[in-house]
């Protein structure tokens, strides 16, 4: 069994409704800046467009959601949105979380040889975590998305 499946379950639309009010501020800012959507709309749309979508639980509490949307047969766009409890879990259980994330990324990379997406330049924690997981930052787009803010393009081959 995959290591991350102990933390995850297939997402439901109800999970979007349950997580949205608790989305951490930096994730709220990022989805608004990129798409102009509120937390609930961004979670629902992300879930709907993803081939793979998991809800992340810790001690039976929903703390985040993640997925990969297919761009084409070889490219997937990974995403992850969480609550403050998600960050608390990450900080408390770094080794466990890293092992689960690393396996998930490798599994998604075997399905999609190229993983790529964009991250708000203000989101230092996510940028650091993406680097730790083996993603590279290919270019800074100064005027990205709904709010025209700087976003980094990131990829993993």
SSE layout and pairing:
Layout: E1 8-10, H1 13-19, H2 25-35, H3 39-49, E2 52-58, E3 61-72, E4 75-82, H4 84-92, H5 94-111, E5 114-120, H6 124-132, E6 136-144, E7 149-156
Helix pairs in contact: 1-3, 4-5
Question: In words, what does this structure look like?
Answer:
It is built from 6 helices and 7 strands. The longest helix has 18 residues, at 94-111. The chain starts with 7 loop residues before the first strand and ends with a strand. The protein has a single domain, classed as Gcn5-related N-acetyltransferase (GNAT) (Aminopeptidase), CATH 3.40.630. 41% of the residues lie in helices and 34% in strands. The protein is α+β, with helices and mostly antiparallel strands and 157 residues long.
Q: Proportion of β residues?
A: 25-35%
User: Architecture, CATH level 2?
Assistant: 3-Layer(aba) Sandwich
CATH first level: Alpha Beta
Tally of individual helices: 6
Key terms:
157 residues; alpha+beta; Aminopeptidase; seven-stranded mixed β-sheet; 6 helices; 41% helix; 34% strand; globular
Quick description:
The chain is of the alpha+beta class and 157 residues long. It contains 6 helices and 7 strands.
